[in-house]
Amino acid sequence: MKWARIVLVGIAIPAAALSLITLAVTGYAFKLAFEARGAPDQIRIGQFAEYLGRSYWSVLVILTTVPATRWAARRIPASRALHGALIGVVVAGVGFLLGFTMSMRTVVEFVLTVAAGWLGGVLAARACRDQASGRGTHDSA
Questions:
Q1: Which among 39, 51, 73, 124 would be 20 to 30 A from 67, CA to CA?
Q2: What b/e sequence results for 80-90 when a residue is b if at least 16 CB atoms lie within 10 Å of its CB, and e otherwise?
């Protein structure tokens, strides 16, 4: 097991989702500032950030878990799907700690995040298997 990689990627995925939301809110703030030709409305920025965070946090985390896990599991010699699932558990755990709620939605998000990590590990295993067999994923012919 590559525990350091599992933990680092598991923490990096929520950080990446937070960065994407911050980038979108910053873009919105610039748009408001140009429209107002001055200081933007802080209330509207706060409302937008709250909406974006609540509505798209889980989606961004789940969608970034698949490629990040695929990237992290590509150099692991065996049990890539298990490593992917463990990364998903770390990501879901971080999300749970940030949310501090226990509801059916939280359980569904946890399961989907672990499944996304597993899927990333399976895709990494498939890519490595194809590369080892000489087929590759990007045939030039």
A1: 51
A2: bbbbbbbbbbb
Q: Cα separation of 98 and 65, whole Å?
A: 17
Number of domains the chain is built from: 1
Q: Is 36 exposed, middle or buried (0-12, 13-18, 19+ CB in 10 A)?
A: exposed
AA letter at 47: Q
Rounded CA gap, 117 and 65, in Å? Answer: 6
pLDDT, residue 123, reads 92
The Cβ of residue 122 has, within 10 Å, a number of other Cβ atoms equal to 18
Question: What is the per-residue pLDDT for 141?
Answer: 41
Supply the pTM of this predicted model. 0.80
Flag whether 139 is in a domain. no
**141 within a domain of the structure (yes/no):** no
Sites in the chain below the pLDDT cut of 50: 139-141
